[in-house]
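Re: the request from the purification team.
They wanted to know what the chain is likely to look like in 3D before they choose a buffer screen. I agreed to run a prediction and write the result into the notebook, where they can find it.
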Amino acid sequence: MRFAIDLLREVLPWSAGLLLITCLIALGQNSRVLDWMLPRRPELPPCVTPG
């Protein structure tokens, strides 16, 4: 049991830190800062209505 608690104390801060970094990257991709990381959607031609 002691080993599990010691392991958790070492791993938990790293896990929380990496989760925070991942969240910051995801938030940055929503803004202009990291917008370049997302694939661009191709421009579609305007719809032509029959008639």
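For the purification team: Helices lie at 2-30.
Please add any questions underneath this entry.
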